[in-house]
Every structure is written in C-alpha cells, then in structure tokens.
Amino acid sequence: MNIKRNILLNPGPATTTDTVKMAQVVPDICPREKEFADMMKGLRKDLLKVVHASPEKYTSVLFCGSGTINIDICLNSLLPAGKKALILNNGAYSTRAAEICEYYGLPHINLKSSIYEPIRPDEVEKALKENPDIALVYTTHHETGTGLLNPLQQIGTLAHRYHAIFVVDTTSSLGMIPLDMEKDNVDFCMASAQKGLMAMTGLSFIIGNEDIIKQSKNYPKRSYYCNLYLQYDFFERTGEMHFTPPVQTVYATRKALDEYFEMGEEMKFARHKRVFEAIHKGLEQLGFRNVIKREWQSGLVVSVLYPDDPNWDFEKIHNYCYERGFTIYPGKISTTNTFRLCALGAIDEKDIEDFFAVLKEGMEHYSIRIPVQYNQPE
Ligand SMILES: *Cc1c(COP(=O)(O)O)cnc(C)c1O
User: Fold this and answer.
1) Alpha carbon of 145 to those of 193, 327, 336: distances in Å?
2) How far apart are CA 166 and CA 189, in angstroms?
3) Considering only CA atoms, which of 377, 359, 375, 378 is closest in space to residue 308?
4) pLDDT by residue (tens digit) across 57-107?
5) CATH assignment of the domain containing 197
6) What values do phi and psi take at 60, rounded to 5?
7) Domain-embedded: residue 273
8) Closest CA to ligand 1's atom 6
C-alpha cells in the first residue's frame, strides 16, 4: 500500500512510519482474549524500559484516552486526604493541571512563574518549607507550548526531601529525551502513544512507583473512570483494561515500541537533535527569532516570533505548506504571536530542508520580506 507521507511539524501526533501505520490492520479480535491481554502485558513491561524503570519497583498502567487523561488521573488519584498538591506552573500544560485541581476541588498551590524561564528550585523549596502539608509536587518536563525544559532532577530531590511524591508530565519528552526514573527522582511520569513513541492516538500510559499506587487504594475516590488504583488493580488481576481498550492503537504501539528499541534511545535522541538543529538553521537563514533562550530549549520544539511584516499571515503560510505536505502549528502563548516547529516523529534533516524550501517559496509567493523584519531591536 502506498500512503502519502506528510511531515508533521506540530507538537504531536507525529509523523509515523508506514510499518506502524500498517500494524493497525489486524484480524478482528475481542480484546478480552488472552492473546490480546498477553500483548498488553508485554507492552506494559517494555514501557518501563523506555524510562529505565525496574519492574521490581515500578509499573505502568494503560488508559484509553488522550494525554490529558494521565494528568487528570495522577492528580485525582494520588493526593491523600487533607493534603495539598504543589503545581509548578510555567506554561500552558501546567496550567491545565491547576485547572484539573480546581475541577476536582483538590487543595493545591498554583505556583506560577515566567513561561520564558525554567522553574527555579529555590522557589520550589520556599513553597515546600512554608507548606508542610504538600504531599504531591507536580510539574511539566517539557512545556510543549513554548519548548522550555524544566529541571527534573533538582525538583525531584526537593520534593523527596520534604516527603512529597513527584509527578511529572513527560508527554512531550518521553521516548525522545532520555529519562531515568530513579536518577531523575521521578515517582510518576506519563505520555501518550502518539508523541515520542510515534504510534497512534488513543492510548495513554502512566509509569510509576507501584507501592505508592497500592497506598492510593485508601485515598479519596474522586473519579470512577479515571482512577489509577482501580485500573492498576484490574490489570493485575485480569491482564485487561477495565473498559474497552483502543485495540488497533495498542497494536500500533507494540510495533512502534519494537522500532524504538531497534533504533535505541541514543540514536533516536541524536536524530531529534539533528532535526532540531536543522530547524534552527533554516529559521536563522530566513531571519526568524526564537522566543525561548537557546540553552533553555528542550531540543524538540522551537517557538518562533511572527515577523513584523504587513504581508505576514500565518494562516496563509500554513495553508501553503499544508497543501505541499508540511504541517506547521500556531503558538500557545497568549501574550505574543508565535508559531511552532517541532522535531517529533519519524522525520530527519532532509525533511526539514525540504520544508524550508517550501516555506521560503510560500513567503516569496506572499511577498513577505526575506530576511524577515522585526520592529524591536533584538
Ligand atoms: C500533548 C501533551 C499533553 C496531552 O494533550 P492531549 O491533547 O490530551 O493529547 C499533555 N501534556 C503535554 C506536555 C503535551 O505536550
């Protein structure tokens, strides 16, 4: 089968390999069959390897839903009665976590800081010192909205020093930036299949400390569908997801994981870096400016400032590129006009070079000045 190859420069779902696409086409199967349960068992075990988590201490739990379901589940399931969550908020995805706390009425501190700078450990420590009832520290590893990376190891050390668990949204870094649960002091991390693993949408997973999950059995039950212990316990007893799994996506994820291990963590990380460098090179040649300081960037997402050109129209440029097989994405900063170029997915340097040829052509087509102009000095 010949499937058109689109280059997705949006922050996931990412460009997938044809072999992963085709892995979804399988004979019909009832997901309550042992054959399917066995596959999920292997998948749960192999997911641990991606974050170097020992199966003696950690487990992974699968859910049917987009990545946000993980944030919802971790927050509502892992907070003991009478305790507080500390949300370290320097971007749109941590804001989502704070909103989830509000929706569930969870006691929490929404510790906001600049979306242009990584979280400062001294501010985290101050909050932990002042609030001994914090039992859960939460942050986003890679703030996909801006491309900013937060320092996990330091925050995790502080969380543990003050006897709190450390929950991290790693949705847009897992399987791309190497992560080691133990060394990085992470108790819970999460992702969905369509991002770093380059599979399909619909399957999400949480990897975490098994003892803490067992303890959470006695925590307040705030959701039925989105309860971590309930799903974990069902998996342990039956090998199955409590409710209907996204069957075809599970097959695709199995295949994607095989391809992940075939390539290896280091090689894959190197490829993402290569793509990221190619994005920067292309942007520089056209005169575009970044929003986040280079040394704080994740290496996966570049936030680009709109030029001050009366002919610049993101929508038109997007459509021009889209019609030619390249998808670019608007920014997620409410105060500044930006767009994003991302280094996720099964793409390489050459795809980025092809993209910039099309982008340049599009800019010329719409008479946008090259190099692009900005009114403010840098
Ligand atoms: C993509 C993403 C999510 C999940 O978003 P969904 O739209 O629910 O898939 C959560 N956190 C981060 C950091 C993300 O990049």
Assistant:
1) 19, 16, 12
2) 9
3) 375
4) 999 999 999 999 999 999 999 999 999 999 999 999 999 999 999 999 999
5) 3.40.640.10
6) -125, 145
7) yes
8) 67
Q: What is the pLDDT of residue 1?
A: 72
Q: How far is CA 140 from CA 114, 169, 372, in A?
A: 14, 5, 32
Tally the domains of the chain: 2
Q: At 315, which CATH number?
A: 3.90.1150.10
CA distances from 317 to 217, 309, 329, 353 (A): 51, 13, 11, 17
Residue 198 clears pLDDT 80, i.e. is over it: yes
Give residue 200 CA to ligand 1 midpoint distance, Å: 14
Q: How far apart are CA 217 and CA 80, in angstroms?
A: 10
Joined tokens for residue 372: 């692009």
User: Which residues, judged by CB distance below 6 Å to any ligand atom, belong to the binding site of ligand 1?
Assistant: 11-12, 66-68, 93, 140, 144, 169, 171-172, 192
Burial class, 50, CB count within 10 angstroms (exposed 0-12 / middle 13-18 / buried 19+) = buried
Asked whether 115 and 166 are in contact (CB, 8 A), the reply is no
Q: Which atom of ligand 1 is nearest to the CA of 144?
A: 15
Query: What is the Å distance from ligand 1's center to 277 Cα?
Result: 24
- Inform me whether the pLDDT recorded for 332 exceeds 90: no
pTM, two decimal places: 0.97
Alpha carbon of 195 to ligand 1 centroid (Å): 9
Write out the H or E segment, with its range, that includes residue 284: helix 265-286
What is the 8-class DSSP label of residue 24?
A: T
Domain with 352, as residue range(s), is 265-365
Residue 97 near residue 169, CB atoms below 8 Å:
yes
Distance from C-alpha of 295 to C-alpha of 292, rounded to nearest angstrom = 8
Q: Is 71 helix (H, G, I), strand (E, B) or coil?
A: helix
